[in-house]
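Moderator note: this is an archived Q&A kept for reference. The question asked for a predicted structure of one protein chain; the sequence and the answer are reproduced below.
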Amino acid sequence: MGGAVDAEVAVLVVGGGPVGLTARVLLERWGVPSLLVERHRELSPFPRSRLVNVRSMEIYRQLGLADRIAARAFAPEYGRVRFRDTLHGPDFASAAMVGVHEPVPESPEVGVVTSQDRLEPVLLGAADSEVRFGAELTGLAEGDGAGVVATVVDERGAESRVRARFVVGADGANSTVRRLLGVGTGGPGALADFTTVVFDADLDRWCARQPAGVYFTAHGSFAPLYPEGGWAWFGPTPEDVAGADWAGLVARALGPEAGVRAEVRRVQHWVMNAFVADRFRHGRVLLAGDAAHAVPIMGGLGMNAGVADVHNLCWKLAGVLRGWAGPGLPGTYETERLPVAHRTLRQAVANSRLAIEVQSRRRERLRSGEAETAGTEPPWSEAYFAQLGLVLGVAYRSAAVLDGYGAGADPAGAGEPGTEYVPTALPGHRMPHLRLADGRSSLDALGEWFTVLTPDPEPWERQTSAASPWPVRVGPLPAGQAGPYGLGTRGALLVRPDGHIGARWDDCPDGGAVLRDALGAITG
């Protein structure tokens, strides 16, 4: 890895979408300087991702951003999808997005429907680390274990070399980082070509009284973009792209009887992908978000899985860089997140099939001559978008999770969460939300540190003096609220910085350094 470099940084983040921007904020909160490079000249002007789910909002709550994101989002009643023959027709099926349409008792937060171009500016403004727009990664070279040298070309064609201790590739489904590493992918691959048309039109007469985040019709899908106005249509890309009349296409999708002319603002072509990378780590380079797993849009799982990726990863990088974790800790990122990516892909594919099925049922009813007002029974009951088992119920198995005796954990439910979420305080699981006596959530006790939650803080406080150099705090848990966690009066939970339980004890051993030993084992 010889030769001069133009800049050195702890972490190079490649990609300025929501995942890369979230990684930048997390790293800064954990005291790690980073440089983010994005090949486009500015943040994306397209709405793209539509849903910030309840778990992502919990992460943004920890970062102090949840209220700002929610303030720019739609009201909760937009947390619903509707199926119609045409946009101006009645619903023949609908489904609420669980954890978005209304609060759920399992979380202090509510997911929101918002456009990606409203989310990204909030994330960009939440950290001060350097960002270079119009800067494209063209080369990666790993050397003697001290870091990675990245070649970056700016919009004028000037080339620079950046040495980073770690590289996070969050540069999308067509990831340059993944290609340079030679990492393959598995799964269905490219499913279809789609086009999004952003337009202005007055559609309130059909939608204002029955709001939704997405309206699926036989002529493509419609989505309101912002609380103050704006719409998007998306559907299969027509064969003659060059000669397409986009305003006319949207008007035809609305139906001739609608009498509405769309004023087109932007058009974007994209590919619906379905794959998972064969691995998420190559030495000091790690993949996250769509670079690691691209999933169909149904259910809004893709971007949110990427946010969870970097929430899992960044504290581990911080531990290595700040000296309180061993070099093997980042390896647990792939161990923990790769199985989640496969489950997420399967759920997103299942969601897509359900949407196709309800539309197929509708066509059959219409062909059979049944009255349109009869509606169509959805094939999903309450399961569609009821994905809290995947969103909140993920559990990790890795060397960074211990049971109460210091052995590798095998938490119940860690294998294949379903649509239902059952809170549990077993190691590997997300720390369950409980409302504390002062009105705060138990999740509010967590932060950029390891947290010991216990009804009896005093003996655990004594142990923290021997827990250097790890960042650790002890949080009191009212004795009356220890029961739901299955803890005795002297028991404790050790919660990792990403909110997942790293270890638990039913009692506090007298003397010894059980806390120090657990922290050492978790961090390698």
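Archived answer notes: The longest helix spans residues 331-367.
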